[in-house]
Amino acid sequence: MLGLTVRWSLVDAAEGVEEELATYVAETSHARFTGMSGLRFKTWRCVPGEWFEGCYVFATDEAREEFQRSFTAGADESPGSRIIGSSPVLIEACDIVAVAEGWDGFVAAPRA
Q1: pTM, full prediction
Q2: 103 in any annotated domain
Q3: Are the beta carbons of 68 and 56 closer than 8 angstroms?
Q4: Among 4, 8, 6, 5, CA closest to 86
Q5: Could you name the domain of life of the organism this protein comes from (predicted)?
């Protein structure tokens, strides 16, 4: 599977930025990516005070390459960069080796 990781540092971000990011994901970003053509799924991850990350899994090389090219071109002005106050520290294509769904199942929700 075809992955892409976009990570921002939160080390120098304002206090409370994690809540602002979670609200943005719940109110805007989740809907933008739900049902997106070429995207299998996206997760948003955060370690408070350390980093915030979007992890994408795409259906085709073309979908990943197009998204990565487009995102990279506007990364400095992306909503995440504006909220955090800095550009991503990492935009990296990767291979997803496997995905396992546990007994309790997968939950797609705008806020965990």
Answers
A1: 0.93
A2: no
A3: no
A4: 8
A5: Bacteria
Identify whether 24 is part of a domain.
yes
Average pLDDT over residues 15-32: 97
For residues 46 and 49, give the distance between their C-alpha atoms in angstroms, rounded to a whole number. 9
pLDDT (0 to 100) of residue 1: 87
Radius of gyration of the chain (CA): 14
Tens-digit pLDDT profile for residues 70-94: 999 999 999 999 999 999 999 999 9
* Within-domain flag for 102: no
Q: Give the range of the structural domain holding residue 50, as residue numbers without chain letter.
A: 2-95
Tokens (6 digits) for 46: 């955060």
Residue 47 contacts by C-beta under 8 Å, 6 or more apart in sequence? 10
